[in-house]
Design a protein that fits this description.
The structure holds two protein chains of two kinds.
Chain A lengths: L2 E2 L5 E2 L5 E2 L2 H26 L16 H4 L4 H34 L3 H12 L6 H12 L4 H8 L13 H25 L3 H9 L4 H12 L1 H16 L3 H7 L6 H10 L4 H30 L5
Antiparallel strand pairs in A: 1-2, 2-3
Helix pairs in contact in A: 1-13, 3-4, 3-7, 3-10, 5-7, 5-11, 7-10, 7-11, 8-9, 10-13, 12-13
Chain B lengths: L1 H13 L8 E5 L3 H18 L3 E5 L2 H11 L7 E5 H9 L28 E13 L23 E4 L4 H10 L11 H6 L4 E5 L2 H9 L5 E5 H9 L4 E4 L6 E9 L6 H11 L2 H11 L12 H4 L8 H5 L6 H20 L1
Parallel strand pairs in B: 1-2, 1-3, 5-6, 5-7
Antiparallel strand pairs in B: 3-9, 4-7, 4-8, 4-9
Helix pairs in contact in B: 2-9, 2-10, 4-13, 7-8
């Protein structure tokens, strides 16, 4: 928090003058204003009537929200939450050992290799990454070719257009974020605690479970929450891997907004999805509060 | 110094006025942009000295941009689908066309005379395309063949536009585009046969090439592209006809280069250019005097006589623009989810 002291400078909570702070926060403030403006536009579209054959919405209505009460939309919202949960959980399970290795491996080359493997997906576009999974999961793809080549199956196994394939591809997209957040948390765990435990006879697994894991809980919670929220807005991956059979909220927004020109209904979906995300993350925060307290102690 | 300035001034007024400006064309990216650049734009620039710039994007992205730019359009000419053209018209984004300024348009087929504001640029059909090596016992004489139980989990259709299958189902059930509800029950019976819904041309081609969906409600041009790539695909037009698609061209309202925009559209309807477009994309020319190779003319989806045009299923573009949101919503709720 900062307080104003004069026309061009701010004072931070420790009482020090920060003459450049106002200049530094200006770009963020401008971005925030644009973002709020865009959100206001979505809000006003969501309560306007859709007129078929026209791009200009009609008068005020709540029909866009009452239409969301259809079971189909509830199913898509629940499916989205389920996919987010699966993706965040799997990313955590796969990402934790990678982050642990990244922090604890001493050989610089090995450390660099892990870092490159982890962050490479960030340098590829989401569509490119998704297409690579189509090549892996397709009927004539990498996995089915091996399975059929080894005569383990007679017909290709159906991976494409399934929740499993969508989650695997989303984990690939999400893992760099998770590993970076976990590695940051693990790097802050004081190793002398672990050494103290080991010197008192604790085996490595016990030392990990009683010291490293609890102390890295803030990173686990932050990583899980970020992965969950990040996945909620996934579009290209469920669109291409799901093939219209595995739909998330963003796909529905695209189908109804962009392909049907029904922007008011798409806006109501966006707004509901945003409220749902905030609500779920708040619930998650409340649920993990008791666990989070373990960390500092 | 004065002499130098005078010389520069003299040179600047010596250059023809139109040679200093560019005509800006809004179109889809990729092969569509290249198609127009290599055919119409090349000839147009050669004849007028006016270079052509392209702005590219998806159908709806460009519509939204045009709406935001309204009285100061980014482009002078826009290519879009015929039904989305009606959304431009309803928003006052297209100029009313003066047909006397497009002499080549006198040869336009009736199906390309879309409205006083937009005209057809080329045509294609959405029809049945299938992998000959994977589907051997069905010859798709009728759209009804899509309902064959042997095709369970084998069909793909576009997720962005269900008009084709909705209207086909209506026709097979005794209805039409306006009374599409008659086909609801029939289309629901097709649900088990769908395996996926493709998002764009590339996705359609990829699903066909990999054999993931060996049967598709497919854009004829995309299917022919796959044939050209060596994929064993057969395009067939059922007895009821393919669903005709006409992409359109129009001049943006507020364009300050309408004179050269008319010249561009007139070049588009040059019979040689139309034949060239048909050859490159394996689609239909929209002028009657385009001369096509015999091999091209006999392809399903390439129409060279009025009777062939009339045999196709034509959904009125204005009705389609009005109904598409309803169709899309129904399709999402009842077929895709």
């Amino acid at each position: 928090m900062a307080v104003t002291s004069g026309p061009n400078e701010l004072i931070d909570p420790t009482g020090r003058r920060q003459p450049l702070l106002r200049i530094f926060i200006t770009p963020a403030a401008i971005c925030a204003m644009i973002y709020v403006g865009a959100m206001m536009m979505i809000l006003q579209f969501s309560v306007r009537e859709f007129i078929p054959g026209s791009l200009i919405p009609g008068g005020l209505t709540l029909a866009n929200f009452t239409a969301l009460l259809k079971p189909l939309y509830g199913h898509v919202f629940l499916n989205t939450l389920w996919i987010c949960f699966l993706t965040a959980s799997t990313t955590l399970i796969v990402g934790y050992p990678l982050a642990y290795a990244l922090v604890h491996v001493r050989h610089p080359l090995m450390k660099s290799a892990i870092l490159i493997i982890v962050i490479t997906p960030l340098f590829l576009g989401e569509v490119v990454r998704t297409y690579s999974w189509i090549i892996v999961f397709g009927n004539t793809g990498f996995i089915n070719s091996i399975l059929m080549g080894l005569s383990l199956v007679e017909q290709p196994v159906q991976f494409m257009f399934t929740t499993f394939a969508v989650v695997v591809a989303l984990v690939h997209v999400t893992i760099p974020i998770m590993v970076i957040m976990l590695a940051t948390a693990l790097a802050h765990v004081d190793r002398s605690y672990v050494k103290a435990a080991e010197s008192l006879g604790a085996r490595p697994i016990r030392a990990f479970l009683t010291i490293t894991l609890p102390l890295s809980l803030p990173g686990i919670i932050a990583g899980f929450t970020t992965a969950f929220a990040w996945t909620f807005s996934a579009f290209a991956t469920p669109q291409l891997i799901g093939g219209g059979r595995v739909n998330m909220v963003s796909n529905l927004v695209y189908q109804l907004g962009f392909a049907s020109f029904n922007f008011p209904f798409a806006a109501s979906l966006c707004l509901t999805a945003l409220i749902l995300t905030v609500a779920v993350l708040a619930l998650l925060r409340i649920a993990v509060r008791p666990i989070e307290k373990i960390g500092p102690y | 110094m004065k002499r130098l300035l005078a010389a520069i001034f003299a040179m600047s007024i010596a250059v023809p006025a139109h040679a200093q400006e560019k005509l800006v064309v809004s179109i889809w990216g990729g092969s569509w942009r290249d198609l127009v650049a290599d055919t119409v734009a090349k000839k147009f620039t050669r004849e007028t000295g006016v270079p052509v710039d392209f702005i590219t994007g998806g159908t709806i992205d460009r519509l939204n941009k045009a709406k935001l730019a309204k009285d100061n359009p980014e482009s002078d000419i826009t290519f879009t689908t015929s039904h989305v053209g009606w959304l431009y018209i309803d928003s006052g984004l297209f100029d009313k066309l003066e047909m006397s300024k497009i002499p080549n348009a006198k040869n336009l087929v009736d199906e390309a005379r879309l409205s006083p504001y937009h005209l057809g640029a080329w045509a294609y059909v959405y029809t049945i395309g299938y992998r000959t090596d994977l589907i051997k016992d069905i010859n798709f004489k009728s759209w009804n063949d899509l309902w064959n139980p042997e095709l369970k989990g084998k069909i793909a259709a576009p997720d962005f536009d269900p008009s084709h299958l909705i209207v086909v189902s209506a026709i097979l059930s005794g209805g039409d585009a306006e009374h599409w509800q008659k086909g609801e029950a029939k289309l629901k019976e097709l649900k088990p046969n769908f395996k996926a819904f493709y998002t764009d041309d590339a996705n359609s081609q990829q699903l066909l090439a990999s054999g993931e969906t060996p049967v598709q409600d497919v854009l004829s041009m995309n299917a022919y592209y796959m044939v050209g790539q060596g994929v064993p695909v057969t395009v067939t037009i059922p007895n009821e006809g393919g669903v005709l698609g006409v992409d359109s061209v129009a001049i943006m309202s507020g364009s300050k280069k309408t004179d050269i925009a008319y010249k561009f559209i007139n070049t588009l309807y040059d019979p040689e250019i139309q034949a060239n477009i048909a050859q490159q994309k394996k689609g239909s020319p929209v002028v009657r005097n385009a001369k096509l190779d015999a091999d091209l003319a006999k392809l399903p989806g390439v129409f060279t006589s009025p009777a062939e045009w009339k045999r196709q299923i034509i959904i009125d573009p204005k009705l389609r623009a009005e109904k598409l949101p309803e169709w899309r919503k129904w399709f999402s709720e009842n077929i895709m989810n």
